[in-house]
Amino acid sequence: MTEPSGPIRLLIVDDDAMVRAGLVSMLGGTADLHIVGEATDGAAAITAVAEHRPDVVLMDIAMRTMNGLEATEVLRKREGAPEIIILTTFGSDEHLLRALRAGAAGFLLKDAPPPQIVDAVRRVASGEPMLSGKVTRQLIDYVSGPGPHSAGAEARAALAGLTAREREVAGAIAEGKTNAEIAAELFMSVPTVKTHISRLLAKLELNNRVQIALLAHDAETR
Fold this sequence. Notes:
Layout: E1 8-13, H1 17-27, E2 33-39, H2 42-52, E3 56-59, H3 68-76, E4 83-88, H4 93-102, E5 106-109, H5 114-125, E6 130-131, H6 133-144, H7 152-160, H8 164-174, H9 179-186, H10 190-204, H11 209-220
């Protein structure tokens, strides 16, 4: 997705009318955000994305007809897909990993303070992933530990096909570094970092940098 040139177009998806109203009230007055629509479940979200072409979707998980995880998986496979932030009361490892592997760019709990939600929307719209500190620690602990989720051998094989520089960039992404931080650490320009990330996504057949981070973590799994 290219960075929006005007206000960030935002779609809110939640089956609770009060939650939607609260998000609209909270975010609607932010100058650089424009709420283009609402949806009550995942199926309606897919229709709304086609109609409104949002830049970012705030997506609940637990909804009838089609849940947010299923909708994320469908939407992120499509050309020109919006960035998706999972906003939920559920913080389980299973939900977190499924959402991020499906291509969600952020995962925030519903008790996140309003400024954090606004910041998350802005960051994912500009191509940066956004996870709350609590969720980030949970993710790293889970994917680094033993268990059936581990795909270390496959991940290592995928990374073996990269250049040394690309592996360095992938490792920096896995550490949660921004493009500017990666540029400073690896002595390259920010545009060069973006070029490397684009190549990583193409070579690894992934659709965002969060998935690069997951792959790098998987590669380190014993």
